[in-house]
Request: fold
Amino acid sequence: MTEPSSEQPTAPGAAPADGPRRRWDRVDRIVYDIEQAFVVGGLLVMTCTYFLTVVFSNMKLPYNKVDQALIRLAGYPDSQSAPAELLATIKDVYTPLVAGILTFVLAVLALRTREKLGRPKDAPVPPIRWGRLALGGVLVTAGIYLGLKVVEHVPARYLGLTAVSALLGITVYYARAIRAYVRLTASAVGGVLVAVYFALKTHDTYGWNAGFSAVLLMYVAFLGASMATRDGRHIRVDAIRKALKGPGYHLYEAVSLFVTILFTAFLFWMALDYMVLLEDTSVMHADSGLPQWIVALPITVAFFLIVVRFSAQIVRAVGAWRRREPAPAPQVELH
Reply:
């Protein structure tokens, strides 16, 4: 199944500018697919590593949240005031029992809800098969417990490599299914880079995650800003624009884009100069162990792409003004 093409068929006698415009649209789409692959991949890696960090930190606590709640129920304000025998009983007996029962009940409810999903409204409710639900609840509870123990004892770098491999495999499968080969290639490159980082820079615990997530956040934020420019979802002042109905709309659009390009080009030049300075001085990002210029790279790339995309929009706005085209019909925006 291929993605629908946004290109229009060439009409006889079309203007020569149609060819460059279509070529630009194809290039812009390729760049957008690469940005999307890095943004989505960055968000997935950030979410996965944050989840592993939270689980690991809680598993390494002397007394977790359930332990602390049971200690308070026993009449003691904290673990330091409770007797050692009670603490051992709570940690080794009551907490696993309470957590296991709660997990089992929630798993059974989730499995029962899943049985009802996707059925027609007039279809009868499927009968409750308690044996199957109980077996499923036991398996889910055991799987969650095993997963917690794996996170507790397996070094972080190996879990990180496993998670990246799984995410990359899912991405490759999905991209091949829809024939999104550009996104597939970009995702593979990004996945390999993250895997190399996990193999060389990470440790057995998750102390590195805060710095690495900060780096990924820079890529997600600035590449996402470039994508928003392409989608027309960037911040704009519409008070005058919406009042223009004739060809003057396109002239106003071109002038406002030109002013925006001046500011964005200045920011691009400053970001490029700063990135070159970082590369020359070999400054390191202490929290992630990466060269600082790698952290600044998405800022420079995003501002450059924004300038290029705004420049293409100016060309189209000027062309529409010269052809005396009316302003486009207003569209309802969903937020």
The first strand starts at residue 284 and ends at 285. The beta strands are 284-285, 290-291.
